[in-house]
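Now for a typical sample entry:
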Amino acid sequence: MTNILKSLVWASIIILLAYAAKDQGMSDNAATGLVFAMVGAATASLAGSKGCRAKGWC
């Protein structure tokens, strides 16, 4: 699976999760924290398969 397809899947999951969080009545701070956590997971998932030369950043 290419990174473009993975990115689209992650983006759709994050958007659906944000909508579901607001629909369930979560506070703005809780929904924002949940979305930021998913963005971090997506970033780690997409960057984890590549090698990284930056010391301490990967």
Q: What stands out?
A: The CA atoms of residues 5 and 13 lie 12 Å apart. The mean pLDDT is 85.
